[in-house]
Amino acid sequence: MTTLLIAEHDNRALSPETARALTAAAQLGGEIHVLAAGDGGSDVAEAAARLNGVAKVLHADAPVLAHGLAEPVAALIVSLAAGYEALVAPATSSGKNVMPRVAALLDVMQVSDIIEVLAPTTFKRPIYAGNAIQTVETTDAKRVITVRTAAFAAAGMTAEPAPVETIPGPDDPGLSRFVAQERSGGDRPELASARVVISGGRALGSKEQFDQLILPLADRLEAAIGASRAAVDAGYAPNDWQVGQTGKVVAPELYIACGISGAIQHLAGMKDARVIVAINKDPDAPIFEIADYGLVADIFEALPQLHEALG
Amino acid sequence: MNILVPVKRVVDYTVKVSVKPDGSGVDLAHVKMSMNPFDEIAVEEALRLREAGKAEAVTVVSIGPPAVQETLRSGLALGADRAVHIATDAAAEPLAVAKLLKALVERESPLLVLMGKQAIDDDSNQTGQMLAALLGWGQGTFASKLAIGDGTIEVTREVDGGLQTVELKLPAVATTDLRLNEPRYASLPNIMKAKRKPLEEIAAADFGVDLTPRLKVVTTEPPPARAGGGKVADVAELVAKLKDEARVL
Amino acid sequence: MSDAPRRPSPEPREAMEVDVVIVGAGPAGLAAAIRLKQLEPDTNVVVLEKGSEVGAHILSGAVIDPAGLDALLPDWRDEEASLGTPVTDDRFLYLGPAGALRLPNLVMPPLMSNHGNLIVSLGQVCRWLAGRAEALGVEIYPGFPATELLHDDQGRVTGVATGDMGVARDGAPKATFTRGMELRARYTLLGEGARGSLAGQAIALFNLDAEADPPKFGLGLKEMWQVAPEHHRPGRVQHTFGWPLGAGTGGGSFIYHLADDNRVAVGFVVHLDYANPYLSPFEEFQRFKTHPAIRPLFEGGRRIAYGARALTEGGWQSVPKLAFPGGALIGCAAGLLNVPRLKGTHNAMFSGMLAAEHVRDALAAGRAHDELADLDPALRAGPVGRDLRRVRNVKPLWSRYGLFGGITLGGLDMWANTLGFSPFGTLRHRCADHAALKPAAACTPIAYPKPDGALTFDRLSSVQLANVHHEEDQPVHLHVADDDLQRTSEHGVFAGPSVRYCPAAVYEWLPPDAGGSDPAPRFAINAANCVHCKTCDIKDPNRNITWVPPEGGGGPNYGAM
Question: Which CATH class is domain A191-310?
Fold first, then answer.
């Protein structure tokens, strides 16, 4: 059996999501080919070839593939599908966009967002925003899978790169046209999608202190700012900064809770962060029960120190 | 131009679901149900397009048992003009839903299908893309802004790291993201009026679509508890661990 | 917080004319609606419900006397065998700190027997009633609290208005602002349950309580558990009194084994005439579960739901006049709970049906907006009056003679009433619940054990199991009339009882704002936690807190409580 893994990239560099999805693809067994579909992008193809476990890289290079539009990319993947038993992509915004289109064209029911491979046709995936984990077995002859990359370690590199084969791009289906791309950045990242979130609680004592202690750290870490409901209610932070069951639910790489005791309603909004740091002077605060790194300290001392330590 | 808005009845987003102890699924007994929030955003956007004169009529459609008519009435109360209930007691997967919707689209000929990017129960995030594929239409997923042009629609999409704007030929499928709009309330007078709006019922079987599930759900379990409880002595140790152990700095 | 929310400029509301508007889709309101349609199918009946769906705000034990169902829908037994579980095993225990004494069923007054009664989820019963009502053509609108009584120029009630939606915390209209609606009705029935907010207005406006004793309340807390199968005894009902409450505080527990899914409802009622401001009903409940006679039931079990609601305990002496010009109070908005039986659903339904009958007669006579003059005598002479009158002295005896004397005398009085007389005549309720609190200086703080997270819990993790949801950006729906009074008296004199009586952690007293100019402690109101139990409206020592309905659909979402 052979698996086709769809590379995630921006035509210049291979995204690290690909190496993580590769780990999941490898667990299906069988040979793995990587499709690097883009405009230019030979660096991407070469980077993919150096990933450990890749047998071959297919490099499709055509202007119509420049922006990863779903219609041409799906057409390309479908044209290659006959040679593969499994089609895998990271569950990024582009994987989520393209793969269901591929699945429908192949009359396959996609398995979305897998977090574990139990057997080549059996997977675990989160439902209800992660409040339940479902184990599903696919009965389709071909498998179309997207991978929640945070759940898999990245595959390593190899000294002996796999061969890169250039393949023709698809015809333009003429359904869609790229207009513009806008990078977020400069300003503070969106709370719901930020990589790092730093949150303040009522222990900050006032809006002035909230601003003085949290804002510089957020700038330094390029983090979005969150707040507990208590801090929002006390007027230290605006409504739309609230993290929690009734506010925003966030799942960043790093969540730093400062002076937040960790009421269950707050925990419901951030417990899926990959790494949780809690700084609180009450050693019994419930937030420490879920924190990876708990620091029992006065935030008025610890936060300036942290800012200094980060340089 | 008519807009078709598929809506799904799901466990209300305020309800904390619990997994049945025998692993057979999520406990849905006595649980409050309502319209999938992303679909509500789709209904709102369709109404705004109609109110802006860009569309003539908005039709909501839902697939499922008789109870989904309640969800359709909510759509009508928000302002949709008519509703279609595709009746089936089978739990349809996204692929089957897309096939049923395709059959309905062929009958209704809307120029735009506007729907939620995903349902908050199964979190599949597939149906819109699948429907576009089956129809051979363009797709604008995760929309945070829509602009109807002359025979085209411009969709600004929320993608990793920013926004991408694409132009699609109409007819097309667009799926909504959270920031597209803030849905209105269904006012009491409108809920009352909605009772008299047309709601058509069609048996799913009449479309001749095979609804047999392709995925077998083996078991459903609660998520593993977070380990937690780790402590550091001071800020220096914290920074070192974040850099070297967790590698997030 | 005392800044009255700035009302949006009153733009005109849409209005609809109906025959009858009923506020609250509980047993009283739904029974009234069904009865109206049974009597005259063409009656135009609208029911408003503040919960997001019927049953969302219904919290009760519940063991119900099916007399109400029998009278309203006698076919319920054939159609819906699944509505409840018949009581098959009825136990009454006295708890001491370490032991339990089971009272022989023989000494229990027949008035307290549960023979023939049903263990139900009252929320489920209400959903079933709502289905029957809708089948008869009743229009039910959940998610719409009635927030205002409408009046004509003579002051008579002419209907109600629903609240505005989409109002920001500061009172300004948001982009989603949606004006409320007027339901103009020939008659308005208020079935909001204990301490209803419109009922409160009607009582004050029309002096309905002029001849009644002060209303009395209890706070009921409840958890639903899924117990280990070997501990599940479908049909068993157990009540306790005694520990952990001291002799001066009234209350007790209930444990009902439902039929399916190994579910057991456990609850605790604390009479709100308690004196010690340090008392915490929530923590008494948690502590109760640790009693050696109780704890084993929950071993290996899992708590699946939580809720709390005030209940009326005044009974016969406290029932106000029901009828007012243009409508009537029904159910526990009038306080029709039978306290020693811990049952009110049957009376709620009877009162709704009776009001419906009087409304029907009035409508048939072409009347509108006047007073249903015969309603009150009929209520007191009918099944509700009989039920309440026989137990009228029990609660005052409890209050006067404490735990043992009160229970014994109350029991004797009920035995005597079974035979048709009372040795006590009619005893009065002496003081309103809020006035029962003593200054903190005269009381001893109570040290409650820490929750263990398995059998006992804290408030916030409990509230999460009530599925509470409120739109965050809306005016605080708990109005403090005078901030200074709250600070000097509620906090200064009474040591902040709100922090303890509130079962949902809505209230907190916080240290002064760091760096702020105000050196006084701050009263924080976490309104979004509110489970709509109304205890603050009852128990604040100065009656300084008023509960008003928040934006429609807000509040708990009880599934099957």
Answer: alpha beta
Q: What is the pLDDT of residue C455?
A: 97
Angle at the Cα of B40 (from B36 to B45), degrees rounded to 5?
150
Q: Which helix (H) or strand (E) holds A178?
A: strand A176-183
**CATH number reported for the structural domain that contains residue C491 in this entry:** 3.30.70.20
- Residue in chain A closest to C510 (alpha carbons) equals A202
Distance (Å, whole) CA A47 – CA A66:
18
Average pLDDT by consecutive 10-residue portion of chain B (249 residues)? 97 88 90 95 98 97 97 98 97 97 97 97 96 98 96 94 93 94 96 96 96 97 87 95 86
Q: Give the nearest partner residue to A179 out of B134, B167, B216, using CB atoms.
A: B167
Measured in angstroms, the CA of B248 and the nearest CA of chain A are apart by: 7
Q: Is B14 on the interface with C (CB under 8 A)?
A: yes
Q: Which residues of A touch C (CB under 8 A)?
A: 202, 204-206, 208-209, 229-230, 232-234, 239, 242, 245-247, 263-265, 268
pLDDT digits (tens, 9 = 90+) for C223-253: 999 999 999 999 999 999 999 998 789 999 9
From edge to edge, which strands make up the β-sheet containing C118-119?
Answer: C63-64, C118-119, C85-86
Peptide bond into B171 cis (omega under 30): yes
Indicate whether this model's pTM tops 0.80. Answer: yes
Separation in Å, CA C294 to CA A289, C100, C458: 29, 9, 19
Coil/strand/helix, residue A65: helix
Q: Taking CB atoms and an 8 Å cutoff, what residues of chain B touch A94?
A: 159-160
Query: Cβ–Cβ of A254/B95 closer than 8 Å?
Result: no
With a pLDDT cut of 70, the percent of chain A lying above it is 98
Q: How close does chain A come to B126, measured CA to CA in Å?
A: 5
The CATH number for C179's domain is: 3.50.50.60
pLDDT at C152: 97
Question: What CATH architecture does domain A2-167 belong to?
Answer: 3-Layer(aba) Sandwich (3.40)
Q: Do C176 and B184 touch (CB under 8 A)?
A: yes
Query: Can you tell me the ipTM of this complex?
Result: 0.94
C510-539 tens-digit pLDDT:
887 666 677 788 898 999 999 999 999 999
- Beta carbons of A230 and C514 less than 8 Å apart: no
Contact list in C for residue A233 (CB cut-off 8 A) is: 524-526
For C315-369, the pLDDT digits (tens) are 999 999 999 999 999 999 999 999 888 899 999 999 999 999 999 999 999 999 9
Contact C56 B188 (CB under 8 A): no
| Residue extents of the structural domains in chain A | 2-167, 191-310
Same fold, A2-167 and A191-310: yes
Chain C residues close to B47, C-beta within 8 Å: none
- Domain holding C521, by residue range, is 454-547
Residue closest to C28 by CA, chosen among C329, C352, C322, C354:
C352
Chains contacting A with at least 3 CB pairs below 8 Å?
Answer: B, C
Contact indicator for C48, C144 with CB cutoff of 8 Å: yes
